[in-house]
Design goal:
By secondary structure, the protein is of the alpha/beta class. It has eleven helices and twelve strands. The protein has one domain: TIM Barrel (Alpha-Beta Barrel). The protein binds ligand PBG.
């Protein structure tokens, strides 16, 4: 016989056949919408490298949350731009901090939307690193490092302050070793056993975060984050990082960035039974936006395809700046 018995093309002939055998789908209930909250009133400042994404004052963040909820989006991820930065990042955990105020206001106005918070120091430290700095003496002079273990205590304070303000879930993104266990302990000891942790378990030292650092004004003032974030060349290390976070009590494992790392999402999907989240980061958003603005890509179709591909790779949840666009279009 000239042709094999099974001819996949037969099932692609019409849309109704195609949709009957489609293996994955994506819809708004899988999406988390990130937002940047800044001091001030009536502030809605567009980020130049992320058209369509804004720094919002708390009042405007509430309006945005209402819109997201009306569009059927289930969850927000909050990042804060503090009024003041210092070496310890102390505005990250104060009761009157920007994220703490935003959580309260949003939960009051839109109680049904899940409020997830980024737990990290880099937006709050004057040096822009994700932890406390320490000096280590060496032959050729002193060098500066991020002090992993001293940072854990501060992360505990931040997570706790978010839970106290009413956050539904915390998402540590700093990549310090032991942070998930430390945060779990702090939450449990203070009556927040029910608050889950979505861990940025596998976060690479990526150049795709560039526009985010404009948005959150948190570019490191010296050096880079490669001492604590992962080497883009590694995938076995991703399994080790994810295993540690799972053992420390993470409820959801995240991979970040997204599109260039679909293999890592696939790998984690095969090895873990925990839910997996993927972060379509600022640089991925900016690339699609820039190409679409030039008429080089069909924005709507590319948004759909990119999010569907995350699901095919194995992500349960996708964090994306396109969440509202997706919910409006599909
Ligand atoms: C903070 C943090 C970053 C992102 C999320 N949380 C920046 C970084 O690690 O430098 C990046 C998100 C994005 O690019 O959209 N640690």
């Amino acid at each position: 016989m000239m042709f094999p018995e099974y001819r996949p093309r037969r099932l692609r002939r019409t849309e109704s056949l195609r949709s009957m055998v489609r293996e994955t789908s994506v819809s708004r209930e899988h999406l988390i919408y990130p937002m940047f909250v800044a001091p001030g009133k009536k502030l809605r400042q567009e980020i130049s490298s992320m058209p369509g994404v804004f720094q919002l004052s708390v009042d405007m963040a509430v309006e945005e949350a209402k819109e997201a909820h009306a569009l059927g989006l289930p969850a927000l991820l909050l990042f804060g731009l503090p009024e003041k930065k210092d070496a310890k990042g102390s505005h990250a955990w104060i009761k009157s901090g920007i994220v703490q105020k935003a959580i309260e206001a949003i939960k009051k106005a839109v109680p049904d939307i899940l409020v997830i918070t980024d737990v990290c120091l880099c937006e709050y430290t004057s040096h822009g690193h994700c932890g406390l700095l320490c000096k280590v003496k060496g032959k050729g002079g002193d060098s500066v490092f991020v002090d992993n273990d001293a940072t854990l205590e501060l992360l505990q304070k931040i997570a706790l302050s978010h839970a106290r303000a009413g956050a539904d879930m915390v998402a540590p993104s700093d990549m310090m070793d032991g942070r998930v266990g430390a945060i779990r302990e702090a939450l449990d000891d203070n009556g927040y056993e029910h608050i889950p942790i979505m861990s940025y378990a596998v976060k690479y030292a990526s150049s795709f975060y560039g526009p985010f650092r404009d948005a959150a004004e948190c570019a490191p003032q010296f050096g880079d984050r490669s001492a604590y974030q992962m080497d883009c060349a590694n995938s076995r290390e991703a399994l080790r990082e994810a295993t540690l976070d799972m053992e420390e009590g993470a409820d959801i494992l995240m991979v970040k960035p997204g599109m260039p790392y679909l293999d890592i999402i696939g790998l984690l999907r095969q090895e873990f039974t925990l839910p997996i989240a993927a972060y379509q980061v600022s640089g991925e958003y900016a690339m699609i936006k820039a190409a679409a603005a030039n008429g080089w890509l069909d924005e709507k179709r590319v948004i759909y395809e990119s999010l569907l591909c995350f699901r095919r790779a194995g992500a349960d949840i996708i964090i994306t700046y396109f969440a509202k666009d997706f919910a409006q279009a599909f």
